[in-house]
Amino acid sequence: MGHYIRKRISTGILTIVFSFCLTFFLIRFAPGNPIKVLAGTDNPNLELIEHITIRYGLDKPIPVQFINYVKNILKGDLGYSYMSNEPVSKLIGEKIFATILLTLTASILSVIAGTYLGIYAARRVNSILDKVMCSISYIFDALPGFWLGLILILIFASKLGILPTSGMYDLRAGYEGLARVLDIAKHMILPISTLFIIQVPMYFRITRSSILQTMSEDFILTLRATGMRESKIFNKYILRNAIIPTITMFSLSLAFTVSGVTLTEIVFAWPGMGRLILDAIIKRDYPLLTGIYLMISISICVFMIITDIIYALIDPRIRLE
């Protein structure tokens, strides 16, 4: 088991290094120039452009910029944003909690509900209820997230007036303590409902199809022939083998928690990473984009390592291979 974990960690570190190098160069080779954004497009001053170019080290060759950036990374410095002139680590730190709070809550609720419904439908396959649930899952899966969010705002915020339309908390109220927590929870209802509705069908279909596939395996027929109780067969053998694809999808959703859900955050004006990423792309903010992608790469690799370890605990064949 120790060798298996070390191997996965080594692979993860190599993946982070490769992803960091790739994104660093892709960002800088992409069309667009942050200097033009900083200097203005109406009547750019050539002296100002030259000054900004030298100040941010963009006059140097890209390989030299890469080496300098790596040196700063090793010191724990992600650099300064071109647009706000604030540390990248500070900008990410201000937004990442709101994104994790929103996406993590929605992901946990979605996987619980979707897995339970998938198990329920699989054990009643081809029944009327199973067919209805499958049909509803396809309808919900086809709904665009931003459209669903706007519809929920229209119904529950604009028409009924029972929920806030946007933001993470009421800026005017100035709540503190428990009242602030309840205010944040109230603002989370609509965005979480949007993510919940569009994510549950995915977990439902994956769990249902995986259970049905496992139930048709030869070893399950053998266990039934021995007279073993159906409940024991399902809980110990079917569910344990069928749950792996669901864990994979859940870990992937957690891996991208740092990057957030851009469209949903924009629709609900949620102060998270989605808006920060979009602004950084539009303004060609190289240090901010590189820092964000580095954080995303690290989060993906960490969750993939955790997922591989969970796989090995669930199915010993994986670590033996």
Protein model, in words:
The mean pLDDT is 83. The chain has helices spanning 2-29, 34-39, 46-55, 62-74, 88-122, 128-141, 145-159, 178-215, 218-225, 230-242, 244-255, 262-267, 273-282, 286-314, 316-320. The protein is built from 15 helices and no strands. The longest helix has 38 residues, at 178-215. Helix 5 (88-122) packs antiparallel against helix 11 and helix 8 (178-215) runs antiparallel to helix 11 (244-255). Helices cover 75% and strands 0% of the residues. With 321 residues, it is mainly α. The radius of gyration is 24 Å and the shape is globular.
Compact overview of the structure:
The chain is mostly helical. It has helices at 2-29, 34-39, 46-55, 62-74, 88-122, 128-141, 145-159, 178-215, 218-225, 230-242, 244-255, 262-267, 273-282, 286-314, 316-320.
Topology summary:
Blueprint (H helix, E strand, L loop, with lengths): L1 H28 L4 H6 L6 H10 L6 H13 L13 H35 L5 H14 L3 H15 L18 H38 L2 H8 L4 H13 L1 H12 L6 H6 L5 H10 L3 H29 L1 H5 L1
Could you name the key traits of this structure?
globular; mainly alpha; 321 residues; 15 helices; single chain
Tally the beta strands: 0
Tell me the Rg in angstroms: 24 Å
Q: What would the average pLDDT be, to the nearest integer?
A: 83
If helices are DSSP runs of H or I spanning 4 or more residues, what is the number of helices?
Answer: 15
Beta-strand residue percentage: under 5%
